[in-house]
Specification:
This protein has 79 residues and is low in regular secondary structure. The chain has one helix at 46-56.
């Protein structure tokens, strides 16, 4: 049996509901479920975002290049 990682959210009543289809080949096998909280992601404030964008200004190293664009497809007139 392969390891399956599922992220789910605990409902407002504090109960976690899981439904994991593992396949008929795995029927009647014993499994182990481990519950651990996902790391919380800190939301970036608008001020932090602006500071990050400002810190990136002027950091580009190199030249801007436009690759060849190819040829236009020729089509028959519509009418």
């Amino acid at each position: 049996m392969n390891r399956i990682v599922v992220k789910s959210k605990v409902s407002g009543d504090g109960i976690l509901h899981l439904s994991l289809p593992v396949g008929l080949a795995e029927a009647n096998h014993e499994v182990q479920v481990t519950v651990e909280p996902c790391p919380t992601q800190k939301r970036t404030t608008q001020e932090e975002w602006r500071a990050w964008v400002d810190s990136m200004a002027g950091t580009w190293q190199g030249d801007f290049e436009r690759p060849p664009q190819g040829e236009y497809e020729e089509r028959e007139p519509l009418s």
